[in-house]
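Sorry to interrupt, but I need a hand with the structure work. Leave the record below and I will have a look:
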Amino acid sequence: HVQLVESGGGSVQAGGSLRLSCAVSGYRHCVGWFRQVAGKARLGVASISSPVGTTYYRDDSLKGRFTISRYSAKNTVFLEMYGLEPGDTGMYYCVTEGFTHWGQGTQVTVS
């Protein structure tokens, strides 16, 4: 049974930081993070492969402010976000490769 549980969202001021966590069970392959703003489609943010840990970011602007990592011992994937901007606001979801399993999401609000 595959399950993903996100946590770590919250409300911060512009320039602040947050660390999102995705606790994964029943699965040990590539995990990605997506962001969704109300009324719009989910947009990929970053992903990390397993076991090599190759990372991917949607664009260079994210790569400079966001870091995706994996703590294999606890099968948890992190998304560290620095220099947050209002445009980063949204619901953040983690997802398995092939988009077959999604977490419930964690809200990030930047003002």
In short: The radius of gyration is 13 Å. Strands lie at 3-7, 10-12, 18-25, 31-36, 43-48, 55-57, 66-71, 76-81, 90-96, 106-110. The mean pLDDT is 95.
